[in-house]
Amino acid sequence: MRKILAAGSMALLLASPAFAEIRIAHVYGKTGALEAYAEQSHIGLMLGLEYATGGTMEIDGEPIVVIEKDTQLKPDVGKAVLAEAYGDDDAHIAVGPVSSGVALAMLPVAEEYERLLIVEPAVADSITGANWNRYIFRTGRNSSQDAIANAVALGGDGVTVATLAQDYAFGRDGVAAFKTALEATGATLAHEEYVPTDTTDFTAAAERIFNAMGDIEGEKKLFIIWAGGGNPMSKINAMDPSRFGIEIATGGNILAALTAYKELPGMEGATYYYYEIPDNDVNDWLVTEHMERHGTPPDFFTAGGMAAGIAIVEAIKKAGTYEDTEALIEAMEGMEWDGPKGPMMFRAEDHQALQTMYHFVTEVQDGKDYGVPVLVRELGIEDMDIPINN
Question: 304: domain range?
Fold first, then answer.
């Protein structure tokens, strides 16, 4: 009789709210060409959850459990594992992925299951634009934020720009947004060049750019939009674009990619994050903890992952629930919170996080084997008119 009572008591305990879990699925490209981005994103997500919960990894006494799913950078796999996370693992909220192409495949799954997907760090405008649905929020910046910040940094009357980008959603959305933003500065976009994502020989592409720009008078810049390995900047710089009066320009990137920036001191652009730029308590904590635990400073996508983790905790606290998706949506629309980049806000119309960007100039500094992006000026939320792309 005692055994039956014990078993019955255990069943009641397991069914009680004390054993509830807040299940968050991180659905991201753990393997593949962007695995460095993925690792940073996951480290940042876990640090963000830790920071926002004061180290407890609990909200109102209920533990946070993070479930990892690997998209392998394949849209069909991303779609399948997100459905698995919602359906089999009963994840209340999902975060990810790294690739824009994978993200676009995943968006309808969130709508089908009527659960939240916080997109971090995929960038394509269409994620919170043409392909968006109300279950999608994005803490990462979008192509328009990149584009407008870089247009402000690079554009001006009499400036002519060519672009080189990867031939998929990230590259094409990025150029489209940059082109629109550049017009407002008085600059002209003279040539667009797209190459496959796995390109390693940029000779033909560079020659087409040089031919298109060679006879143009005035200030000329080649703006490169690139993600992952095979960054063309060093290879094109070795072809001496300066003989055509062309300066190379690009946005910010992860620390490993900044080694190529060392060849181009004085190069300007705009970046999403560099650990020495933001001056706030959240970033101070991130830099200190990351250095202590990993022996390196936090990187580009570490900051984004952390912003997502903090946003999740703040949303659940504000909504008073993690199971009621409608209550979470209501809480998150217009929600403001502080991340490592400072104040952020989910725009109610498309759930895109508005955030600060940074105009930088590259500087060579002792003790660093990469070109350091040094702050020229902050571009705050109020400084950038980010279009609603729905």
Answer: 19-141+279-354
